[in-house]
Amino acid sequence: MATNLVVRNIDESVVQALKQAAAAHGRSAEAEHREILRASLMAKPPRRSLADVLASIPLAGADEDFNYRP
C-alpha cells in the first residue's frame, strides 16, 4: 500500500453519508472511502488527444457541399 491520506474539514453531512454507504456495503468508513476514491479515479476513460477526436468525426460530404451563397 502507498501512504496514509488525511482529509480535514469534511462537512458532517458528508461524513454521515460516507458512514451510511459503508454500512450498506458492509465495510468500514475507511474502506468505503478507499473504494470511492479508487472507483472515481480509475473508472475514467483515458483522455483522447484533439487530433484523435477530430480524426474520429465521420466525413459528411465534400467541402463544396458547405459553400452556401444566397
What is the global morphology? elongated
Q: Can you count the helices?
A: 3
Q: Work out the number of β strands.
A: 0
Mean pLDDT: 89
Protein model, in words:
- The structure is a single chain.
- This protein has 70 residues and is mostly helical.
- It has a domain at 12-58.
- Helix content is 49%, strand content 0%.
- The chain is built from three helices and no strands.
- It has helices at residues 12-25, 29-42, 50-55.
- α1 crosses α2.
- The longest helix has 14 residues, at 12-25.
- The mean pLDDT is 89.
Throw out a few tags for this protein.
single chain, elongated, 49% helix, 70 residues, mainly alpha
Topology diagram in text:
Elements: H1 12-25, H2 29-42, H3 50-55
Summarize the structure.
By secondary structure, the chain is an all-alpha fold.
